[in-house]
Structures are given as structure tokens and as C-alpha cells.
Specification:
about 160 residues, alpha+beta, Nucleotidyltransferase, domain 5, four-stranded mixed β-sheet, 4 strands, about 35% helix, globular
């Protein structure tokens, strides 16, 4: 009989073992109907340790007035997790998207692109990332979303004129 978490459809143990054998921290990206969450997790024999966490919910504190579950919000969450990880001394990670299917241009890959753009090293092919106009929110019919996106991006990166 399989393990309980496998029976419940929560854990793929073969995939988890391959990730853990790399001895690198994992960039765990999970999405819900309202938010995108990202964590940098390190394996420990006692139990996994979360080194850094970020959620698209944090964007509201920075002035984000739009939905927190779309591509621009996922990218900004990737920027947040990357910035926090570099601040804690984490320079590289391996992507762990759990049981979600790998879909080219998805919110998961938008989050990874944000983390990579800040300077976190995550092995991932360029062809799976969303197009730049989708990351900036040009496909969403809200006229001030691209301007807000750039403003929040500058705040996260710590640039002046934010």
C-alpha cells in the first residue's frame, strides 16, 4: 500500500527524491485561486526548513491594487522571493512545482522568471517563460496595470524614483 500522502495525491516521492539528491535548496512555487506563494526550502533530516517565503499577498502592502493571481503578480512575487533569498545568502535553487503540470507560459514560470531576473540561479529553459508583454500585463484590460507593474517592480528592486 502506498504512503498516505501519495494516496491523497499530495506528494510524488520519486520526483521529491530526485530533487533532494541535488543537495540544493528548492524554489517551491504553489498557486491558489487568489494568490501565488513561493518558498526557498532546504532539506533537513528532521524536516524541511523554510529559509525564505513570499506571497503575492505582500504586493498589496507595496501598493498593488489588482488581482494577486495573475501573471504580473506572479512575476513580482518571483522578484520578492529572489530578493529575499539573495539577502539570506541563497544564490541558487532548483524549481519544485509539485504535482502541477508543467505548462509553458504559466504563473509558475512567471514566478521563476522573476526570481532569475533578480539574480537567483534556477536552472530553467527560456522557452517556458511567458512573453514579456504578458508579464507586464498588457493582455489584461485595465489601463493603469502596466504603469503600476513598473512602479511596484522598482520598489522591489530598490531603485530610486519608485
Amino acid at each position: 500500500m502506498p504512503f498516505q500522502r501519495r494516496r491523497e495525491g499530495k506528494t510524488n516521492y520519486q520526483k521529491r527524491l530526485r530533487l533532494l539528491l541535488s543537495n540544493k535548496p528548492r524554489l517551491v512555487v504553489r498557486r491558489s485561486l487568489k494568490y501565488v506563494r513561493a518558498q526557498i526550502i532546504q532539506f533537513d533530516k528532521v524536516g524541511d526548513k523554510t529559509l525564505v517565503a513570499a506571497s503575492s499577498e505582500e504586493l498589496k502592502k507595496l501598493g498593488w491594487k489588482f488581482a494577486c493571481d495573475n501573471l504580473p503578480a506572479a512575476y513580482l512575487t518571483g522578484l520578492l522571493i529572489g530578493k529575499k533569498a539573495l539577502g539570506k545568502g541563497v544564490k541558487e535553487a532548483i524549481l519544485d512545482f509539485g504535482l502541477y503540470p508543467s505548462v509553458k507560459g504559466s504563473r509558475i514560470y512567471a514566478t521563476v522568471k522573476g526570481a532569475i531576473d533578480v539574480g537567483l540561479e534556477v536552472p530553467c529553459g527560456e522557452e517556458v517563460f511567458p512573453r514579456e508583454e504578458r508579464i507586464k500585463g498588457l493582455h489584461i484590460k485595465q489601463k493603469d496595470l502596466p504603469e503600476m507593474f513598473e512602479k511596484i517592480k522598482q520598489k522591489i528592486l530598490g531603485e530610486k524614483n519608485a
